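Propose amino acids for all 346 sites.
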């Protein structure tokens, strides 16, 4: 049995809005991950089966590791097809915002969405959504937006419209946001949904290989290099920091996604409570990723020091400046983190 977590008045409003709409845009956050794209494409397949004019619009490129998802080739990527992406959003009478809680997460699409007169529906699992919408389905206790989309489709009575392709996208989202059911996954709903998805024809084992056990040689080399040479572990501070400069990224012919999940690796050391990865994506621009264990929140750190956010145990942000300065910024956080950890251990 699945739990009815979405209020029935919200379900009714979503149903009415879908029925009344002719053209529907689904938008997810920039640098879309498995859950952003999985939830969006899961819904896209269903709305297409209802013969709606519908498109998934992403602010920027889909990582090549996710291009196998059914329907990924039909996504409108704003960086490649700017005009079309704007036209589609502007012409839509309903807009789904999936897997993000604030408009700045959709980067260049934010002003287009803001200017659109379309009704909005937010489905998300990040804390404190700040997007104005007709319906906000926000459940931070859920490990993925894909799971929420599945529960919504069930509540809407659309189960029969979920085919193998839609189910595959949903499953991919649930798997990526739980690290293949390794964290945030002590929730029976997940496995009840998983059973239904498999009944719908999902090949979970094949998805595992595509999502978690497919590496390029470059990726294997860069991951090994980072662990051998670039992982600074400060056990007395329960902290690990990995940095990669532009020159190092170039040396390994880095492609987007090549260091996916690298930030998790140091957490396997029992003493390490939080892990930080600084990647010099461009001159004076450093992408920041943080992960943590237990009650220690990296969300607050990312908000305070790196203008970002996310979840308690998985967050990100950015630093405008040199990699050295970003590293200094991390070092400056450590005394505060020491205090927080000491308080939590009291
Ligand atoms: P990752 O470290 O995998 O890039 O991101 C982990 C999580 O942190 C994402 O799922 C997202 O919720 C959040 N996140 C990553 N980068 C940013 C950012 O620049 N701003 C905000 N607000 N959240 C971010
Ligand atoms: Mn997500």
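Proposal:
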């Amino acid at each position: 049995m699945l739990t009815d977590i979405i209020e029935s008045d919200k379900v009714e409003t979503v149903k009415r809005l879908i029925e009344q709409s002719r053209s529907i845009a689904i938008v997810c956050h920039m640098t879309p991950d498995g859950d952003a794209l999985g939830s969006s494409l899961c819904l896209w397949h269903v709305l297409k089966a209802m013969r709606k004019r519908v498109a998934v619009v992403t602010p920027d490129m889909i990582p090549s590791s996710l291009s196998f998802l059914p329907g990924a080739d039909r996504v409108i990527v704003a960086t490649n097809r700017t005009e079309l992406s704007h036209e589609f959003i502007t012409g839509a009478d309903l807009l789904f915002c999936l897997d993000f809680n604030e408009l700045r997460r959709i980067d260049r699409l934010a002003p287009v969405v803001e200017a659109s007169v379309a009704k909005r529906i937010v489905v998300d699992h990040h804390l404190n959504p700040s997007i104005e919408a007709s319906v906000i389905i926000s459940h931070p206790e859920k490990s993925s937006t894909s799971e929420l989309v599945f529960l919504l489709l069930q509540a809407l009575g659309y189960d029969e419209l979920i085919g193998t392709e839609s189910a595959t996208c949903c499953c991919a989202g649930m798997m990526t946001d739980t690290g293949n059911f390794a964290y945030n996954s002590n929730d029976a709903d997940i496995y009840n949904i998983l059973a239904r998805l498999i009944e719908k024809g999902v090949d979970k084992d094949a998805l595992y290989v595509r999502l978690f056990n497919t590496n390029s040689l470059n990726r294997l080399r860069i991951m090994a290099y980072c662990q051998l040479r670039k992982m600074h572990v400060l056990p007395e501070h329960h902290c690990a920091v990995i940095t990669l400069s532009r020159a190092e990224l170039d040396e390994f012919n880095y492609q987007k996604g090549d260091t996916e999940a690298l930030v998790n690796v140091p957490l396997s050391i029992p003493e390490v409570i939080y892990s930080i990865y600084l990647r010099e994506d461009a001159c004076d621009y450093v992408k920041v990723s943080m992960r943590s264990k237990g009650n220690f929140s990296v969300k607050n750190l990312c908000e305070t020091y790196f203008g970002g956010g996310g979840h308690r145990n998985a967050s990100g942000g950015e630093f405008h400046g040199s990699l050295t300065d970003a590293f200094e910024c991390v070092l400056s956080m450590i005394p505060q983190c020491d205090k927080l950890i000491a308080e939590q251990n009291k």
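The chain has two domains: 8-212, 217-344. Residues 35, 99, 125, 144-145, 177 surround manganese (II) ion (ligand 2) (CB under 6 Å).
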